[in-house]
Fold each of these.
Amino acid sequence: MWNFKRAELALTVKKWFTEGLATSVAIIAPRRKGKTHFLLQDLSPILLAEYTVVYTSLWKNPNNPAEGILLDVNTAIANNKSSIRKLITMAPNISQLNISNELLGKAEIVLANNPIPASQSLIAELDASIKQLITTSKKPVVLMIDEIQHLKSKPEFNDLTFTLRTLFDESKNKVKSLFTGSSRTNMHLLLNEQQAPFYQFAQVIDFPDLGDEYLAHLQKNLSDSGELVALPKLRAAYIEFDKSPFWMQKLATSMIMDNMPFDDCIEYTQRLIAIELNFSGIYQAMKPQDRIVFMAVANKEQLYSDKLRSEIERKCKVKGNNPNIQTALDRLVGDGIISKHLRAGYQIEKPGLRAYIDNLETGITS
């Protein structure tokens, strides 16, 4: 009832695969925008009739992602041999994968603190398993790799990255690939740099934000549960949460399960976002000029303007000039707080941080 399907996007991706318009698709959006939900709940069901679908998340085993991929491929092989129709590796592993966090709201930012290069024997085993899956499957394979930008987080993963590219090149007619990434910067390094292993390999989709149809759907479900909320109030909250369906669902859950008033639910959800993404730590680590420049990016203000230079000059211990603005931008990109794109310019990578800083600096958040 609560699931709002991105049916049109799912059908588009399926058409690209079935008609040979693309062999690989990359979906890019910040966290909590619903990418994993889209893969497992919207896209996979319409692919299963024609494809063997394997889902894996590189955050499942962040220090050794090759092992995580191998486990899910082998699970698909076992399911295939058992004649289980749904070959997607959701059911047996759902508690271990990101989807559990998308549904239950646990924090799942996972970083490799002890990265392990994939051994040659592990690489060979992964190669053999994917080829075995291709051979034993009666249908073409779609391999979904969630959070693939993780491969760019450590040089220890380079061999795995090039191995995957080679495997996909060798199996183009039999294996389709679908990647998701939460870091636009690392996805750019993976897909768009000329020396990148996946350079011009995938058809890139900037995951679209849901619009008023989604809010109307949410409003109806709330109404059916006895909670009446005007559409403009839902829209304002949606914008406040940087158009994250996940956090809107958390807000709705608080209203229904905890019987909290709407405004209290907004404040409560803001606190959840700040805790999960460590906004306090991020804010404290940012230089004052970085905070000012970040807010300018988040509010889509003109950079290198007299207004921005003047604000830095008044509030910071550095000169309000273009070099210092550029240095702040570079620092924010390096810290993964914003990203830079040729066409779109600078974009925020931490949904909710804008509202947190705005509330903090206006005295609303303690």
Amino acid sequence: MNWANGIQNPAAIGDSPPGTSLSLAVKTSTIASIIGLALVIFLAGCALPYSESGVRAVYARTTQDGRTNEVLVVVAHYYGWGAPLTPEGPQYITSNCKMHYYFSNQHLKGRSLGFLVRPGDNTWEVFAPVEGTNFWVRVEGPHATSKPSTTNLFITVFTPRRSLYQQSIETRDVPDVRFLHFAEGNRVLAYKSENDEFVYDVLERCLKTKSAR
């Protein structure tokens, strides 16, 4: 039996009328063409779910001799609905992004840091290992779900096992990674923009601000 509904293979019947094989081949080709055309029309007029992931950034803790002993990997997962066939090519209808964070060292491989996951994507974020400790620090700008007027800078200090604490610092200007600098083995965050200037000590949780010029 072939895939067509109950049509037997003429070669297995024995006495087949002349031209039967050619006739069945033409019919099969026609059916396949119709199905293919229907599938194209269906895809062109409908939305299908999509999901894709990719590495966004990799951060490392290195020793004084340049060896890497810890790695933090940021993976972006994009998902939503899209139209696969349009005159302009594949188009996204809705798109969402969720960040995932993974930690590895000599003893752990790809541990998921679920406590770092946010409900909404942020505008930007950077990570740095705090020298002389097993701490890491994340500095991030306003979240995508924040109000347009929000200008807070968010700081999270954590270990590979848990979040230690979070700090929100209100700024006059919209936070930008260009104004951020790490100092003293990443123990101190220095931030300076046109209307904001402060330093933050990660270990002492101490914020020192300077008056706007």
